[in-house]
Write a structure and sequence with these properties.
CATH architecture of one domain: 3-Layer(aba) Sandwich
Strand content: 5-15%
Number of strands: 8
Structural class: alpha/beta
Oligomer: single chain
Shape: globular
Distance between the termini: 11 Å
Strand order of the largest sheet: 2-3-1-4-8
Helix content: 40-55%
Largest sheet: 5 strands, parallel
CATH topology of one domain: Rossmann fold
Length: 221
């Protein structure tokens, strides 16, 4: 079963993707991970991508798609995968469809009210030593990192103005491509304002009731 995760920044789609991946033994394919791995390997696509990034320019869509195609040709995705972070624009969707990069069985559309998204952003804290992420909205009362005892800090971009810009880009450039997948009957929308465990339960219930071919059998496995 091939999943595509969809939602605004801070909606929690990455967390849900990881939970699905762990429980159903599917690889999570993140555009960011692909890009980093390709650059680290020094392959042709990675070298080309780095040359653009070093100049502060966008990596061409052709290079991005070549990376994704290569990743999707590997053995571990043959029984399914979870794609997160691509496509993000109408142009990327057009190439994704025309080049037949992947067959998507279901799009998990994670919806969260804007005020909840914003509270997650301004509440996020990152350990300066190990990178552990904690959110003050969890109300766990951590003053030090529970993993290494390090100090928590706040990222410079975790503020209302920066997040609003990111959200506006999502609304303008990314959200419209959901219409294509809706026309294909592949979108399952869930509400994810709750804690991750509750959101995950909502996701599984929604997928079970979606009527998407093979979904129930896959989940009951």
């Amino acid at each position: 079963m091939n999943f595509l995760m969809f939602g605004a920044p801070m909606a929690g789609k990455g967390t849900l993707a990881n939970m699905l991946a762990e429980n159903y033994k599917l690889p999570t394919i993140s555009m960011g991970d692909i890009l980093r791995a390709s650059i680290a390997s020094g392959d042709e696509n990675g070298v080309m991508a780095k040359s653009y990034m070093d100049k502060g320019e966008m990596v061409p869509i052709e290079v991005v798609c070549a990376m994704i195609k290569k990743r999707l040709s590997q053995d571990d995705v043959q029984n399914g995968f979870i794609l997160d972070g691509f496509p993000r624009t109408p142009e990327q969707l057009e190439v994704f469809v025309n080049e037949k990069i992947a067959n998507i069985d279901v799009v998990v559309n994670v919806e969260v009210p804007y005020d909840v998204l914003l509270s997650r952003v301004v509440g996020r804290r990152t350990c300066k030593s190990c990178g552990y992420i904690y959110n003050t909205n969890w109300n766990l009362g951590y003053e030090k990192c529970p993993k290494c005892g390090g100090e928590f800090g706040m990222r410079s971009d975790d503020n209302e103005e920066t997040y609003k810009n990111r959200y506006d880009v999502y609304q303008r450039e990314t959200l419209p491509i959901l219409d294509y997948f809706k026309s294909e009957g592949k979108v399952v929308t869930i509400q994810s304002a709750e804690a991750p465990e509750e959101s995950y339960k909502n996701t599984i219930n929604a997928l079970m009731e979606s009527g998407i071919s093979g979904m129930k059998e896959f989940l009951e496995g």
